[in-house]
Amino acid sequence: MSAFLSIYKKELYTFFQGTTAWIVLLSYILLSAFITVFIGGFFSLNNSGLFSYFYYQNIIFLFLVPALTMRLWAEERKSGTIEFLLTQPLSLFSIVMGKFLAAWSLCLIMLCFSLPLLLYMEYNFITDGWNIFWAYLGAILSAGALCAFGCMISSFCNSASGAYLTGFLAMFCLIFFDFSKIYDWINVEKINNFFVSHAAYYDKHYMDIITGQISLDNIIYFVLIMVLSLVVNKISIEYKRN
Amino acid sequence: MIVVKSLSKAYGKQKVVDNINFCISKGEIVALLGPNGAGKTTLMRLMTGFVEPDSGSVSFFGEDIKQNRLKCLSQMGYVPETGFLYADMHVYDFLKFCAEIRKLSKADFAQNLKYVLSALDLKKVINQKIETLSKGYKRRVGIAAALIHRPKVLILDEPTEGLDPNQKFKIHNFLQQYAKEAIIIISTHIMEEVEAMAQRVILLNHGKLVKDTTPQELKTLFPENNIAASFYKITNDSEVI
User: Fold this and answer.
1) Does B41 touch chain A (CB under 8 A)?
2) Beta carbon pairs, A and B, within 8 Å
């Protein structure tokens, strides 16, 4: 546990010691404020669940999460510190988890910047507590899945810029492409069941959660992305080491 | 004691470490010598568990590194040839990070920090960012990080590269003192360093161990009575052995 914590603390330290965290946080504030107010129509909609804020979170994450995760493994490899790190008495699992949770924590800090909006809503309108809870849960799960996915992409790359670009493109496909349609294309079987036909559509799962139509498969989907990405991340580091 | 048994590693068809065997006891400073590409760095990587061998084993005080990797690594300090520092960290924070990984208590960290700062003359730069340090200081911070938990085994890949003669002298003295309580393995190209520090030389060529001897014996192997000449003759004509 303490080994994992030391990696977690070190990664957070690196984020804030350099410019990464500050740039990402500032970009988040500007982007989310602009999108929520001007595109989401925050002041013109019934925002009982901060819908205009959470509706566009995946687009914001798409630009910012790769910036958080790009350095985590690619930079270690580029600078050679991966040899230092992997010869410390730490399990690879604790290193992978420490890095992933540090990136996820920064996303949680980003989401904290929505609190002024929440307070504004609380004072001026009648809000639906459950709607707000589900919206936050959806954003937190989505951020976690994208962070794990970004860590995995970073473990494949040898430079931070390459990891950003690859991460951005891969996340774009992950979020906006309904992978369930592959079933239709290859004509294995015509699937009419609604849940099955959207089983691999990221944005659909996200929308289900933030609109309060949550079911267990939505949560399992995001957790599965996290687990699979982290497992592949670990395998990739082990493979490249040899 | 470190025991290396039948250790081999190949990258593709090229064998970079080929059936190497040796034992090292406490109190020894062993120099790994060899021309570029002889397999010194790969051998060190195999010993630290960073790279897995194709065959053979490495054990530290009876524990096999493959089976008890974390236990073996906790007794070891390793400074790779490059990339042993996080440039964006401050020296103090980096050493604290290393101590946390090693699960040192606050009291032990304070005591060991005092020891490494004074031994390696790092007090002046303790609050500096690593990227702002000179090459010599960076090397010493790397050694300090490897020493922060007072390991029983210290493995250093070209530890004095980039250091001026004064710094080299200090490091040599320090390592000789430290060797009384530990095993030290250094990889180097500097023959004077071998003569000044090492009690034993393991000479590699094309991934094979071609000589395991003392610096004095290596020096007197050929009429030139010179360690560099012996190195040249052995590594250019392995048949002599």
Assistant:
1) no
2) 70
